[in-house]
Amino acid sequence: MTEESWSKFMDSLEKNEEYHRRYHAAVANPVRRKILSLIAKGLNKSEIMDELKLSEQQLDYHLRLLEHGFCIKRDGDSFKLTKEGEIVHYLVKEKSKF
What we know:
It is a single chain. This protein has a single domain (6-95), classed as Winged helix-like DNA-binding domain superfamily/Winged helix DNA-binding domain (Arc Repressor Mutant, subunit A, Orthogonal Bundle), CATH 1.10.10.10. Helices cover 61% and strands 8% of the residues. By secondary structure, the protein is mainly α. The chain is built from five helices and two strands; from the N terminus they run ααααββα. A two-stranded antiparallel sheet has the order 1-2.
């Protein structure tokens, strides 16, 4: 999947709605929010699979949705949070303090 950016979606209301739909679909799942936290901690795919007891196929599914939702980007065999992914990670971290 190619990396997409917000700028591609900001020139019309319809595209803006698509951007937000994809983002919210990606972060609505608690497993994907946990994956974002683990990526933020620097865990690799194997470590994330072990931590969450996911198969490679299951993890790849969630990673594709997170990438499609603008939350992560691929960096070779690893993943990095985008600004959108960092926001979710921050909110999850703050929520856990209460």
